[in-house]
Design goal:
The protein is mainly α. The chain is 73% helix and 0% strand.
Amino acid sequence: MEGSQLQRLVEVMDQLRSPGGCPWDAEQTHESLLKYLLEESYEFVDAVQSGNRVDMREELGDVLLQVYFHARIAEEDPNDPFSIQDVAESIADKLIRRHPHVFAGVEVRDSA
């Protein structure tokens, strides 16, 4: 997977959240962004259900923005910070645990 565009997203969000960046972006919190996370998720569902791949790409990008925005806010928490890297590590570990038939040589008979 090409990582340069994901790194570009990190850099853009860093600039938006930094001093001299966008005041609106800088003042957002997990709570203030929840409505956008839900809205973008539903818009992606609509795009999938309509079969519109152009809209799917755009809406999935909006969902990714929300995921990264929340991770960026979490990174700034003085008490319990975590980064997008921590989120990615956690989900990769979870996928490995949930798929021992792929990652640990456990045999399975079906997909159930």
